């Protein structure tokens, strides 16, 4: 059953501080066996909250956008992309989750493989320095030519774009990200194209600002036979 509009990418977000004890307790029993095992292994309370809030946001998106309550999430390994499993439907939906210290964002679609990455700009990291290790020589030359004050921000935008693309494909950054190229200027107003030489993948990427001082990107693996430009729709979550 697909009750939703075709070709929409739904996303939502929530600050971890807004997650209340009741929501935590209610959702714990909904975890699949493998997810329960992963949850039980987490030692850090903040990380437990992030893990659970991610699942709550996916539950919220499935319910509001697709009218689905029967499903499980299965993950094989910590660095494996979690997947949705439906017992009563052959629906193909892909989802993804990203967290920072203060918030969690989640995305779901029936339009292809999806990835999300968000980063907190208040965490004082040299994105410019990190980019030097991970970006292509050409990208680093481009960034070097820009004024110092914007180098970190440019590197961060490039980072979230590439990481969202990697996550859509279900990989990790350990294989590198230099082959993933932004073809159009980074934008929050319209989706832009990204291409990768490895496996010849193309992505459509949406820039997002989930909250003040947070940057993010949502990447959808482009399928030629599906609508080329799905809408991005935010569904508010009220804990
Ligand atoms: C998953 C990965 C791609 C990104 O992880 P991250 O930046 O640490 O974390 P994010 O918050 O964006 O995403 C984590 C979520 O992605 C999902 N995920 C895990 N593995 C995934 C994969 N291979 N592909 C897609 N999604 C994945 C999970 O839902 C996970 O949250 P959960 O554990 O609560 O379920 C990770 O494999 C990776 O490569 N991390 C590298 C981070 C790093 O080394 N950074 C160094 C420079 S700062």
Q: Would you tell me which CATH topology applies?
A: Ribosomal Protein L22, Chain A
Uncertain runs with pLDDT below 50, 5 residues or more?
Answer: none
Q: Roughly what fraction of the amino acids lie in strands? A: 25-35%
- Spatial ordering of strands, largest sheet: 6-10-9-8-7
Distance between the termini: 27 Å
Order of H and E elements: EHHHEEEEEHHHEEEEE
Q: Which structural class should the secondary elements be placed in?
A: alpha+beta
Record field, number of beta strands: 11
Q: Give the helix tally.
A: 6
CATH homologous group name: 4'-phosphopantetheinyl transferase domain
Determine the mean pLDDT: 91
The set of bound ligands, ions and cofactors reads:
coenzyme A
The CATH class designation is Alpha Beta
How would you characterize the largest beta sheet? 5 strands, antiparallel
Q: Please, how many domains?
A: 1
How is this structure best described in words?
The protein has a five-stranded antiparallel sheet, with helices on one face. It has a four-stranded mixed sheet with strand order 4-5-1-11, with helices on one face. The chain has six helices and eleven strands. It is globular. It has one domain: 4'-phosphopantetheinyl transferase domain (Ribosomal Protein L22, Chain A). It is α+β, with helices and mostly antiparallel strands and 239 residues long. It has helices spanning 21-28, 33-41, 45-66, 127-134, 137-144, 148-168, and strands spanning 8-15, 72-74, 83-85, 94-99, 103-109, 114-120, 180-182, 192-196, 202-208, 214-221, 231-234. The longest helix is centred in the first third of the chain and has 22 residues, at 45-66.
